[in-house]
Amino acid sequence: MKFPFTYAASFSLAAIVFSGCNLHVDDFNDSATLYADTNFRGPKDDWFGRTDRCRNVSDSMNDRASSLTCDGQITVYEDENCGGAWRRFDCNVADLHDFGWGDRISSIRY
Fold it and tell me: Which tens digit of pLDDT belongs to each residue from 14-65?
């Protein structure tokens, strides 16, 4: 049986394909979590990998978050697609109600 590529050619092709990836180990440490209850309890939505793009919360968590954790800072928005009123938090926030943001978040950016 004859293969169209040698092993060396296969490794070279793989190196070319993966050289376009811009993954960094730190990307896997970036995360954000919204919790339905205060003090980081209850049902939650998790996101991993910093992309600095808008992320809508799940339907089950929409306007239900009462606490949050993240790496660095997070911006929360009242409306989907990062619209409406917003607030930036340094993480972690055990009770969003203390800041007037409990049961109000529909999208995030971190």
Answer: 444 444 444 444 445 689 999 999 999 999 999 988 778 999 999 999 999 9
Residue reference for tokens 């930036």 = 88
Residues 76, 92, 41, CA angle at the centre, nearest 5°? 95
Question: DSSP assignment of 35-84, as one string?
Answer: EEETTTEEEEEEEES-----EEPPTTTTTT--EEEESSEEEEEEEGGGEE
For 99, the 3-state DSSP assignment is: helix
Please give the model's pTM, rounded to 2 decimal places.
0.73
CATH value of 24-109 in 3.40.50.2300, 2.60.20.10, 3.40.50.170, 2.60.40.2550:
2.60.20.10
Q: Which of 3-12, 36-45, 49-58, 74-83 has the lowest mean pLDDT?
A: 3-12
